[in-house]
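Running this now, will post back.
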Amino acid sequence: MRIVELNEETKKDILSNLLKRSPDNYGSYEATVKEIVEDVHVNKDAALFRYTEKFDKAIINANNIKVTKEEIEEAYKCVDANLLEIIRKAITNIKEYHEKQKQYSWFDSKDNGSMLGQKITPIENVGVYVPGGKAVYPSSVLMNVVPAKVAGVSNIVMTTPCDASGKVYPMTLVAANEAGVDAIYKAGGAQAIAALAYGTESIPKVDKIVGPGNIFVALAKRTVFGHVSIDSVAGPSEILVLADETANPRYVAADLLSQAEHDEMASAILITTSKELANKVSDQVEVFIEELSRTEIMRKSVDNYGYILVAKDMDEAIDTANEIASEHLEIMTKNPFDTMTKIKNAGAIFLGDYSSEPLGDYFAGPNHVLPTNGTAKFFSPLSVDDFIKKSSIIYYSREALEPVHKDIVDFAKSEQLTAHANSISVRFEN
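Update: finished.
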């Protein structure tokens, strides 16, 4: 990996390079995505089936687009019993974590006859998109479905690509069934997002779409946003390791590559105060790349978006980490808890030598759907909050309104909204 001395100029260049990975910079795909979305919007199933045959080489129609109970039962036969038990343990952990995020309606009454409050209501219909291209992600099924179930969503439908024979990856089906998905449809890409957003004869329209995907899925979600809600427009995966001289170089190198193997545009960055650690990690990365599978993907990721940044001190290292605002941030320092208190921007923070990023991807409980491309400065991980709506409650008796009604009238008139003013004053005409 390239080793760079950290300064204002190199930091600026690195940030600029990282932002090139944003879906906002892939305008060349926008026209294609909009065409697909509009085609499905207008022609519904006919367009959806046509694109499925074109992109997935599968003949899908109204009779076989929905995954059947028999297909799910068959999937269970293909999944190792030990893996099934692991899925169930992960669901327990994810559920327990997200249950602590639940919000409840509240009301506050005052002696003057007024009552204010907030009503919490689950979103009714949620669509979950699950990729099926270069890799399959049953873990993403759990991370998107379980918080929705905890929030109380009444109807969760899932779309995921099938193979040329019309089959869906068994682990994906099993994970979906275990998590509580209500219906599963064989559809992928931008066409699946359009189907969820607008509805077709086969796939029902939803109110919100969540889940990761490739650039076509990301741009399709952005295209339909406003007609439905979405979780986010996610960019490629990224990891930043913040380490001092006490860190284990093998652990650091292994963790950097855990994200680099996702795709060629994934980002893997080490920020350290130790030149010795920087050199050891760089050497170990080369060893692991040759030993592990997905070598070509890791190589391109590391060559294009991999950095080892050497800071003059930990304050500079932390400032840079906050500026990058990484999706995943691992802290391997002498006192990781103390370092963590100075971190302002990160999607998920992993503390110490034994809290590597895959722990969060699969098992610990916190959500692995996280803000990317610096958006951790203002976005949060997927949570129960993403599956609820909040309604304000306002009640005033005549006795509560009377002492303040003239203030409201005057405020409305100052904005030249006389009908607003009249709506208040009419109640006190006599």
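The mean pLDDT is 95. More later if anyone needs it.
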